[in-house]
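Q: Predict the bound structure with coenzyme A.
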Amino acid sequence: MRLVYREMRKEDVAECIKIILTSEPWKTLRTTEKEARTSLLGGIKSGKTIVAKVDNKTVGFIVFYPKGAFPLGGYIKLIGVHKDFRGMGIGRELMKRAEKEIFNYAKNSFLLVSSFNKAAQKFYRSLGYKKVGEIPDAIMKGYSEIIMRKTLGPIKRFS
Ligand SMILES: CC(C)(COP(=O)(O)OP(=O)(O)OC[C@H]1O[C@@H](n2cnc3c(N)ncnc32)[C@H](O)[C@@H]1OP(=O)(O)O)[C@@H](O)C(=O)NCCC(=O)NCCS
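A: Predicted complex:
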């Protein structure tokens, strides 16, 4: 298996959309093809992206913003790995590469995860993210978006 990581190109977007439309949490959130395309193309245009490719097939992706999208740090907007390729370390590697760029600019990396997406919460905790807040009824009534943060420490010392 030849696994390659590189920047996302427009021709990768269709396969990323397929991963989104067939995975949680996006199925429950009823994410549409148009919404998925907008997020991915937005990442290519004004953020940063990485895809994982196996034999030219897109098996994972990440969209992130090292600055300008979240106060006090970078923001990981979207990550997904194809069902058949989960549990192989691809998600961890995508996060590691995004964090490398984010921590070049900032002391914090932030992300949002749906309250019902327990598997992703566990994944993020295993990478050092901790819950720092919660936005109730954010996308669907009765469910929140949990704000998670990984930090290198405070920005300044109090004096
Ligand atoms: C979450 C996701 C990106 C993880 O990618 P992955 O390639 O399967 O994860 P990895 O193989 O790199 O796993 C990294 C660590 O997280 C843990 N982990 C990953 N998925 C997990 C799950 N479903 N439940 C519990 N732990 C999990 C692994 O045990 C591993 O820990 P270890 O290295 O100590 O063994 C992937 O499962 C996915 O695409 N899920 C659906 C989309 C999603 O929820 N995206 C996040 C939206 S906020």
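A: The two ends are 54 Å apart (CA to CA).
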